[in-house]
Amino acid sequence: MSPASGRNALPETMPSDSAAKFASIGSPYFGIMLAVMAVVLILSNIGASKGVAFGPIVTDGGFFLFPLAYILGDVISEVYGFKVARKAIVTTFALSVFASLCYWVIIALPGFDDDYSAAKQSALEGALGPVPQIVLASLLAFLAGQTINSWILVRMKARTGEKSLWARLMGSSGAGEFVDTLIFCSIAASVIGITDFGMFANYVLVGFVYKTLVEFLFVPVTSLVIGWVKKREPSYGAVATA
Length: 242
Prior knowledge:
Involved in the import of queuosine (Q) precursors, required for Q precursor salvage. By secondary structure, the chain is mainly alpha-helical.
């Protein structure tokens, strides 16, 4: 081999960007992201029971929380693959169902007979009473939207390898958020106080545009987080299939 060819040859240990790589879930990073993802979804379900209006713009009280769940879903899908992301989605689903059951039990428990306790009971029912329908809407939307988001991201990664991360994040997020928003708004509209088609269309459009825009704006941050996790995840690159 000539000196020139030796200088141009790539080291055998250099990772190839043409192949998709993933990690196993042995380190603490996956557990931390899963916990945060579940908390974000549970809190957004509570916040979503309140209708919010910024002038003509109609949304709900969980609008600033829910996109974070999708950002975490993107990180998990990119680093660990579709099978692990599906486990995270199902686990988050189960924890949200458990939280909803706890709300029902707390509301049903007999309270004191004084006026102060009655006022607290009424406030509790007002805050958490609508949550079961919100949870149903959120969970069905979350399952469908996150699954589509993760599947598209991983399929795109299978084609592009480690390249084109931004394209994967933006392409998968747009599809996932549309499905998520449409399902959620269709089920939860009556609880939030949406009474006509104009308000419903406004709610769907604003929700989709807002969530997608937030994810697009956070793509640089999501990319940095993904890069940070990949560098510190000991098993990254050891798993070749998602």
